[in-house]
Amino acid sequence: MSLDAFISQIEKNKAALVARLAEAVAIPSVSGDAKYRKHVFEMADWMKAQLEKLGATASFQPLGKQMLNGEEIDLPPVIFADLRAKTDADKKKTILVYGHFDVQPALKSDGWDTEPFELVHDEKTGRLYGRGSTDDKGPILGWLNVIEAHQQIGLDLPVNLKFCFEGMEESGSVGLDECIYKNKDGFFQGVDACCISDNYWLGTKKPCITHGLRGVTYFKLHISGPGADLHSGLFGGVVHEPMTDLFQIMSRLVTPQGEILVPGIKELVAPLTDEERKRYEVMEFTIKDMDDATGSSTTISDEKESVLMARMRYPSLSLHGIEGAFSAPGTKTVIPAKVVGKFSIRLVPNMTPKAVSDLVVDYVNKEWAKIGSKNKMVIEGDPDGGKPWYADPNHWNYAAATKATEKIYGVKPDLTREGGSIPVALTFSEVTGKNLLLLPLGRADDGAHSAPEKLDLDNYLRGTQLLGVYLHEVAASKA
Ligand SMILES: C[C@H](N)C(=O)N[C@@H](Cc1c[nH]cn1)C(=O)O
Ligand SMILES: [Zn+2]
Ligand SMILES: [Zn+2]
């Protein structure tokens, strides 16, 4: 009965919930750009105030400074917050919730029809457009919405909650691991299980719960030569061109079929078992789901299982961009003097960022020697990148999330592994020694990291209900 009251209260709060998300989206908390850093701090203040308004005891954990684009700047603080149930708190379980309040960069010219930092509700489609709507402001506000609705209907929380919210996730979670390890015997004591809502359904219709994440390691390939940008009419054919060298090296990393060409990488991947393959066979998923998510028909394979495994259990190498390349409209005939190619590799069990980073650096140096260029090349690896994470789904935490999904959506969720990375997931598992679950709110076509990003209003509301019901199922489960 009281759970039904909670579910209806979320419906009643619809306008206020959208307004709360609009306030959060309006703060452009882009962590990867020094110019926006003050807004990440503003967002941290906003989140802390929201938590305190709901009765949580919240504190900032300072992380010190970082170097960004040659500038030393302050890192945004991590927020730790504690909210204990009003009654029988000592007998109730404690769930640790993680999320991030920073976002990816967004410019209207990237392909948005609306201002990225203004939440726009398209009444026709029911979509809420705005940077961070699905990654990860909508989901973290989902938890606040749950607490508020409980208080409004006079229902005590079924569990105690601990929150760890950061503002650097989109930029490698700088400083977070250290901060968590430092508080292992303090704030992180007494946790019974962990939950993160920061990934997506496999398609657009069916919810999922997630028990794995790929890791990531990022590379920057610097090539320089001429003392300044040159006129290609005067110097083309005369000098070694940094961009030509860069294309040579970049094209030796991965094939158009997605095969990673760096020797030794494939050998690190945990072998596929028959039992695991069967899991992909039973997943309710079609190539059309992936086409809907990408807005195209461009999957490398036409076989469902291969597409799923490419996303969840094999590594991938993606080329992201080139700093210093001419990219404006027009036909400027320039030879860029210095270019930086950026690429990353998504990691799966049993790969480590260090092993992969070493293999790539070694390979790139050898390929560079074959080119015979007089330019200068430096390959910057990332041995501390994010490790992959994998959890046992045969646990009461997963059973609770499954029951909650059945209650809210009327279907058994898919059990997935996510292709993206949340490096801190592994840290939480190690520090608490407890089970960790990923419980996503958004759909595959939300456009996370892309343009435009959206969260369907239905996912925001039902997702909030899901998080609340999950907490009640956790309380009801026998640990
Ligand atoms: C899955 C999560 N919502 C996410 O988007 N994670 C990022 C983490 C990251 C790593 N480098 C920069 N951001 C991702 O998977 O790209
Ligand atoms: Zn995220
Ligand atoms: Zn993200």
Structure description:
The chain has 479 residues and is α+β, with helices and mostly antiparallel strands. It folds into two domains: 2-214 and 389-476, Aminopeptidase (3-Layer(aba) Sandwich); 215-269 and 314-380, Alpha-Beta Plaits, CATH 3.30.70.360. Helices cover 35% and strands 21% of the residues. It has 14 helices and 20 strands. It has helices spanning 2-12, 14-25, 37-53, 133-152, 176-182, 232-235, 242-250, 274-282, 287-294, 304-312, 353-371, 396-409, 424-432, 457-476, and strands spanning 57-61, 65-68, 71-74, 78-83, 94-100, 120-122, 127-129, 160-166, 193-196, 208-213, 215-224, 230-231, 316-323, 334-335, 338-347, 376-380, 389-390, 414-418, 436-438, 454-456. The strands form six sheets. It has a six-stranded mixed sheet, sandwiched between helices. A four-stranded antiparallel sheet has the order 13-15-11-16, with helices on one face. The chain has a three-stranded antiparallel sheet with strand order 6-7-20. Helix 4 (133-152) packs across helix 14 and helix 12 packs across helix 14. The chain is globular. The mean pLDDT is 97. The protein binds the ligand C[C@H](N)C(=O)N[C@@H](Cc1c[nH]cn1)C(=O)O and zinc ion (2 copies). Residues 100, 135-136, 169, 198 line the site of one zinc ion (ZN).
